[in-house]
């Protein structure tokens, strides 16, 4: 286990060190202490390493991640796991706005609540939220899955493409072109897999599925404002 | 962008440290707003006394002012000059009269705040330098609000700096921009409420003051503001004994709050809160959009 004191050594040194790890590195476990809400912690990683951040972070934690597993023992600020390609970000606390935005792959687990615009424009990422998500979550979501164990705020899935949304609690309102859909066996299977991967104890049978009505795909004069 | 900080103390023991704690929070937010900085502190209540915080580009204007006010108004006042600001200590029932007299005696001196306990200090420049000029770390009080400004809607001037105070012991700081401030300014003018600057935030402050003059509580005024103020905003407001937070319904301006049994704190980012005592065990959360949060002593 390598320990990195962010306060003593600075953000640039942290990210340079983590980004320099080779695919075959033996130094696979990293502990970051004193994050104190700093921005851009553990961004741009591209090696199968495990980074534990002991405390809360600011903007863009674990952005652009590939392969690495980042575990934040605290809350994350806006834009966590933004544009993640693969790997994992696990957040023990809450996440601020636009967590997992534009993510292409990997798994984002938020054990607490996520704020507004969670999963905006997601392109293949899987997101599992233990609590609630805020308004405009999964806006223009193109691919991937979002699992919400609590409630969803206003305009869930507005202008959604082919991402699949699973919500256990209430949905305050659905956005344009987002509808409730049938839960078929393959959806139960996928949801079970995601809940297991996230380590969340929930019954897949309690969830409802939401997705695109596909009415916005083609030009329709009635959709013009 | 702008950075906002606020601290509302629940216990007396922390009061001597208020200025130091707020300054630390404010300096952390320097990169959110390097244009100007300001701070409002609610100090000790001296029965029957009130304060006027004055500002002058040339502090020489304060020379002899106390004596001239005493001659004009027939009351004893004390004047304490701090850099470009001065705090006048005067009998509470003479506040309006003294304010009018200051305007008459020194037309170039501006009133930053008026009230029983509030003092406001604000200037252009980096937050750390502004705090140093006014010795803000030494200030004591029960609650306070600070602001670092990245100017978008009006010029970088002392008057355009936050906090804005448009009523006795009231102040407001803002991160965001209002889109209907011009029409609202005209509407308020028709109601007899005038503002001094072209700044959008001052209109918001004046709007809340007007609502409260009409009989609303601060909480009710903030609720009404959600309907009447259009644009992006996170507001932190102070009254003589209260502290409130509200965000617009879209809530894209960042905000983090923390509460312990000793204090309630607000920051644009969590970074601003990390040096507060007991923050590790505080309840930390992001205020919901279009929701009014309010605490009172």
Secondary structure: number of strands of chain A: 11
Report the strand count of chain B: 15
Low-confidence stretches of chain A: none
Strand content of chain A: 15-25%
Sheet/helix structural class of chain B = alpha+beta
How many angstroms separate the termini of chain A?
Answer: 57 Å
As a percent range, the share of helical residues of chain B equals 10-25%
- Order of helical and strand elements of chain A: EHHEEEEEEEEEHE
Indicate the percent of residues in helices of chain A: 10-25%
Largest sheet geometry of chain A: 11 strands, mixed
Number of helices of chain B: 7
From the alpha carbons, calculate the radius of gyration of chain B and give it in angstroms.
18 Å
- Can you count the helices of chain A? 3
- What is the terminal-to-terminal distance of chain B? 31 Å
Rounded to an integer in angstroms, the radius of gyration calculated over CA atoms of chain A is: 18 Å
Percent of sequence in beta strands of chain B: 25-35%
General form of chain A:
elongated
Query: Could you give a short account of the major beta sheet of chain B?
Result: 7 strands, antiparallel
Instruction: State the assembly state of the protein chains.
Output: heterodimer
Summarize the helix and strand pattern of chain B as letters: EHEEHEEHEEHEEHHHEEEEEE
Protein name (chain B): Glutamine amidotransferase family protein
Organism (chain B): Roseovarius rhodophyticola
Domain Glutamine amidotransferase type-2 (chain B): 2-297
Pfam family, one (chain B): GATase_6
